[in-house]
Amino acid sequence: MPPTNLLASKTAIITGGTTGIGRAITLAFLAQGCSVAVNHLGLPSDAPHLSSLLSEADALLATATPDRQIGRLAHLPGDVRDPATGEKLVKFCLEEFKVGRLDICVSNAGVCEFADFLSITPDLFANTVETNLTGAFHVVQAAARQMALHNSPPGGGSVIGISSISALVGGGRQGHYTPTKAGVLSLMQSAAVALGGYGIRCNALLPGTVETQLNEEDLRGAEKRGYMEGRIPLGRVGEPKDVAGPAVFLACEELSGYVTGAQVLVDGGLFVNLQ
């Protein structure tokens, strides 16, 4: 049986936690005993995703036993482009779960709209940067301030930035996107240096081709999917749950307590097979 209670009694915030990779990480953390406050935009289109996530969280909670702790789920709408959103999410998490510590921050919220380089508009470029990079900075800074200065006792914690294989390679229709993911990777490296003295570990996860709502249209065609699968040594595109396990590893002090400033590729071997 897989291990349990790896994150027992921990608390976490996860941005963009109702869909895709963020959702999978949320459920994995809950299953390991971590209470999670997720952020979402609060749009009408978010409602079905949020409703099903709450149902899954309730079903998980029903499996709790004296030997297996399941975390609680809470949610708060907010746009990560607003600097106040991170601060509000941290405060909400502590109040909702009645704790004095934030243990884990996963900066996951992001957008990815494919566009030809010569057609990228200033608005598309700005929105991508503000969501993927500026938003990540504000959320990580808010979490780090709590961990370093206000946790009881102060110090400790794990910050995980969801970057991408696109941080390491170019994309012909991603000229506005790849720089933001390289920025998230660099942000985690700099944060690891800046926050190491507080015992805060900062690492980046770099998913490869993972099928989510952001790229499902691009992967819908059999020809494109076959092309991508042919380039991946493990022979398939990833699923959001493939990223959740590495996130648990980086969140767990007992497993990764000496890991900081790292970049963890979760890509089925795609990067080492790029030619």
From TrEMBL:
GO molecular function: oxidoreductase activity, acting on the CH-OH group of donors, NAD or NADP as acceptor; quinone binding
Gene3D superfamilies: NAD(P)-binding Rossmann-like Domain (3.40.50.720)
Keyword Oxidoreductase in record: yes
Pfam families documented for this protein: adh_short_C2
CDD domains: SDR_c
The keyword Ribosomal protein belongs to this UniProt entry's keyword annotation: no
Keyword field: NADP, Oxidoreductase, Rhamnose metabolism
GO biological process: one example: rhamnose catabolic process
SUPFAM superfamilies associated with the record: NAD(P)-binding Rossmann-fold domains (SSF51735)
Family: Belongs to the short-chain dehydrogenases/reductases (SDR) family.
Name this polypeptide is given: Uncharacterized protein
Gene source species: Staphylotrichum tortipilum
